[in-house]
Design brief:
five-stranded parallel beta sheet, eight-stranded mixed beta sheet, Rossmann fold, alpha/beta
Length: 439
């Protein structure tokens, strides 16, 4: 059966269904449609479905090529979106790309969306279908969650009646199409033959390496690579705090450190956001068994989670330097998305920052050109404020003229969480300036 599936992949006659049309599923669906496959995307939100079927991209922010590609494949009839899971009955390949959050209190995976999608898919699963999980999941989840739910819902058996693989996504907002095409992928299968069949599928849209392996290895690779990022960012943040303590500039230190061979000190900042990095370390730890106890990983998480509170401390210090207490201070926050030039607000460090500022009695207004509800006139929002806090390095903020900005404010106080403005530049413009790693 797998040889027939591979033949259908090569001929582009295999019908593909993509469950989940967010930052992962939508560009993947578009790429396979562009490659010549007939693709159906499934999403719960009927308003977003209608938008997609009109060829309008629901993902805002700068996503090079995606709006144009979506419009093209919709116009040519190679992609359609629906809420109807019975479309899975016509598919030879089903990709699952739904969210897999972590409970903030228990730090355990929240697989409700994944299990619901698998249940609906299983009830419509046809023999011979290749199911691929692109969602990021804890090690052993393919064996302990995905496989049993699909088998029970469908009455079919893995490796006998249908095939199961794990190919974790490797995309970043702002680079979705480029990441899909040019990032290597690890492809885990419940059997070597399944892994190879999935490799043949992804060869249709991926120009980089495709490495076949088992499902457990694939699960580990994805959670480890994002945990690596989290730990490295935590190191950079701790070095930034140390530099503040001793009176040094972390940005100068980082630049010189990275001139040494095999050194890659990451960027410090106001915290770690996005759907993946804040949660994937907990997914990795959750997969451990027995008496294993992680030490470095939880510590890194604690450091990164503390950074929004550190920004609050910098705001308090800067305001006091200007003769103003934070209570009833009027503060403007620039950037609600976690990443520059995107509309992605998931786990944004701006969220706890704003909450803590308001708890201290500050009046907070927020601007973000890519997030609806916050995309108003920045000049109007900044006028008469006591402090500006930069939380996202959007291009629009990099283009701000500091002299004009100072003229709009009631107090010349600038707290820069993203090093958008250097300390020297801010001081020359007459600001009281505090930045992560250089105060």
């Amino acid at each position: 059966m797998e040889s027939e599936l591979v033949k259908a992949i090569h001929n582009r006659t295999a019908r593909i269904v993509v469950i989940g049309l967010g930052y992962v599923g939508l560009p993947v669906a578009c790429m396979f449609a562009k490659a010549g496959f007939q693709v159906v995307g499934i999403r719960r939100n009927s308003e977003k479905i209608a938008q997609i079927n009109r060829g309008i991209c629901p993902i805002e922010g700068k996503e090079p090529g995606l709006p144009e590609l979506l419009a093209e494949v919709i116009r040519e009839g190679r992609l359609k979106a629906t809420t109807d899971y019975t479309e899975c009955r016509q598919a030879q390949i089903a990709l699952v790309a739904v969210e897999t959050p972590v409970d903030k209190a228990t730090r355990k995976p929240g697989y409700e969306a994944l299990q619901a999608a698998l249940q609906e898919l299983g009830q419509n699963l046809q023999p011979g279908t290749l199911v691929i999980i692109e969602s990021t999941i804890a090690p052993r989840t393919m064996e302990t969650v995905v496989k049993p739910v699909l088998e029970q819902a469908s009455g079919l058996k893995v490796n006998e009646d249908f095939y199961l693989a794990n190919c974790p996504e490797r995309v970043m907002p702002g680079k979705l199409l480029a990441n899909i095409e040019h990032c290597s992928r690890v492809v885990g299968g419940m059997s070597p033959e399944t892994a190879q069949a999935a490799v043949e599928l992804y060869r249709c849209i991926v120009k980089a390496d495709l490495d076949p392996t088992d499902c457990l290895t694939a699960e580990l690779v994805k959670t480890v690579e994002n945990t690596y990022r989290d730990v490295q960012i935590a190191f950079a943040n701790e070095v930034a705090l140390l530099c503040e303590n001793v009176g040094a500039d972390v940005w100068a230190v980082r630049q010189l450190v990275n001139k040494s061979p095999q050194r890659d000190m990451h960027l410090p900042g106001p915290g770690v956001g996005g759907h993946c990095i804040p949660k994937d370390p907990w997914l990795l730890v959750h997969g451990a068994q027995g008496n294993f106890e992680a030490k470095l990983i939880p510590t890194a998480r604690a450091i990164n989670d503390s950074m929004p509170l550190h920004i609050v401390e910098l705001v308090e210090e800067a305001l006091r330097q200007a003769g103003k207490e934070i209570q009833e201070a009027r503060i403007a926050v620039l950037g609600y998305a976690y990443k520059e030039n995107t509309d992605d607000t998931r786990n944004s460090p701006a969220i706890p920052l704003i909450r803590h500022l308001e708890e201290l009695g500050a009046e907070v207004t927020v601007h973000d050109p890519y997030v609806r509800g916050y995309d108003g006139d920045p000049k109007k929002m900044l006028t008469g404020r006591d402090c500006v806090v930069v939380m996202a390095a959007h291009d629009q903020y990099r283009e701000l003229d500091l002299e004009n900005l100072k003229a709009q404010l009631r107090l010349p106080v600038l707290v820069d969480g993203r090093n958008v403005f250097g300390m020297k530049q801010a001081h020359e413009a007459g600001f009281i300036y505090k930045g992560v790693g250089n105060v």
